[in-house]
Amino acid sequence: MGIIRIGGRGTTRRVSEKEKDNWAGPAFKERQQAQKEAAKDKYITMGRGTAKIKFGDIADTPTRSTKGMWVSSGRGTGKRRLD
Description:
The protein has one helix spanning 25-38; strands spanning 3-7, 12-16, 43-46, 51-54, 70-73, 78-81. It is α+β, with helices and mostly antiparallel strands. The protein has a domain at 3-59. A hairpin with a 4-residue loop joins β3 (43-46) and β4. The longest helix is centred in the middle third of the chain and has 14 residues, at 25-38. The two termini are 36 Å apart.
């Protein structure tokens, strides 16, 4: 069973297979790394357009665990620790 995709301002429908989600978590990190690898030789502008560097020269940012951190709730009046 596939999913129904709507197209053309809602006038057409087609059934297609559901693709693997890649918008969060480790799957997104892998997708992001693949995009960066594909565009590593392109230039991007920085500092109000006064400097340009290659996209591949930007260092990867490490992802830390959120375990044990505090999150506020209820307009900032309460807090709870993440597991």
